[in-house]
Specification:
This protein has 80 residues and is an all-alpha fold. It is 48% helix and 0% strand. It has three helices and no strands. The chain is globular, with a radius of gyration of 12 Å.
Length: 80
């Protein structure tokens, strides 16, 4: 797991202390790890971690469904 993805995971875990871990394929939205109240804050944090702006007009919610999808969409370019 990349350092950037570890930061994303740590952010989520800090807001859900009842969890010890988050599986890479766990649906973050369905399991309420990202909800409507934290969504904008989460996107802002992801911009900070990835170093790239995220256009809210073209944002696909499915790109934020799991740690795997976040890594593939937003962090692969950073790691390369």
């Amino acid at each position: 797991m990349s350092d950037q993805l570890e930061q994303v995971k740590a952010w989520l875990l800090s807001r859900h202390p009842e969890r010890d871990d988050i599986a890479p394929d766990l649906d973050l939205i369905e399991n309420r790890l990202i909800d409507s109240l934290s969504f904008v804050e989460f996107v802002f944090m992801l911009e900070q971690v990835s170093g790239s702006p995220i256009d809210m007009d073209t944002l696909e919610v499915d790109d934020l469904r799991s740690l795997s999808s976040i890594e593939a969409r937003y962090l692969v370019a950073v790691a390369s």
